[in-house]
Sequence to fold (402 residues):
Amino acid sequence: MKNRVYYGEYSLKHWIGLMLSGNIELPRYQRKFCWNQESIKKLIQSLRDKDFVPPITIGAFTASDGKTHNYIIDGQQRLTSILLACIKKYPNAGKFKLKENSLAEGDDGMDSEGEDKTILEWRFDELLGMGKNIENIRQKIATDDRYDDLAETISDEVLEDTFLGFSYIVSNTSDQNEQQKYYSRIFKHINTLGKVLLPEESRRALYFLNGKYTKLLDSGVLKSITIMQNSEPKNPDFVRYLAYLFDFCKLNDPNTTKVAYGYGRKREEYFSEFITTIVEEKKDHQKFPAITFVFPNPDNDITSRLDALRSALNNLSIPKDFNTIIDADMYLLGLIYYVIIKGKTIDITNKDDLDSAIKNKINDANFKSEAHKRAPNALKYTVERIKASINIYKDYVQEPAL
Fold:
């Protein structure tokens, strides 16, 4: 049986009811809200004028408990804007500070392609705890200083008399992995034809292909660490470290210069290829080893090694704040390589000696060149940091392995 697609339309009032009742949901990988008040105004005016507004895409997802979840695949910005116009409030950008684009772009030093400064750390499901109808939400949000008044509102008449179309997709399988792959492809296809996704958003669509590896790829294990970049503190990119170190592991040459070879200006493509190799459990990739080569028993190994990394970060002399990606790489690359990739533990009794060795290398005249500081994105410098950090940590590895 083929995947089925049903078409129709609902009144705006009915769409609001579906959102507030939880009958339609946002999957985890969906981006945060990114429309500003001017975009909301244009949408509401289009609805009033009965102009064409693209339909909403909903996908039926059968969970392991047999329950069906109706995921919003495309259209959350439109639906959220209509909801905000109903309650006459807008999330304050200062109160819902963007965290989604907080990864340090250590490889190019430039803003992420497609970055939108209006993206908020907020989605409409934040409102569901306030009530199940518009009036209850209005009452509770009235004194909430995290929300500003919204200039553009929508009348009950427009809500009842205006209709918005939908496509409702029903997969031909109840297998979760197959459903995830199918809907992830749809999400990626829709969004690559429209507004460019942030790297983190694009990656989350890939994580959805196989949820069992999300705990590795989206672990948040480095969230307590920040790197100053463009005068803003950002978190280290754990996927970046994993991709480089899987690649280094596959090359199996301590003197290699080939890590990320051929991806000098296509680093996000490189990271996406790495994620795809993991979530699709590919056995043979030119750059990355199979997931089971690094984690023979993925369910147990990933959990135990992440726990070991968290412990090492707490017990070693690892700074929480770095001024440059160069310093952060020197402390983190070797640590992640031995703990996550190799399943080893680090001798914390000699943590002061380890810290001194890393600092000495960072301050070495040849390592701390002006060219290196100006262009940490250059692959030759990235590979130099990988090898240098691993070489330092190898003297502090404990046996047995995890």
Remarks:
- The two ends are 46 Å apart (CA to CA).
- Residues 107-117 have pLDDT under 50 and may be disordered.
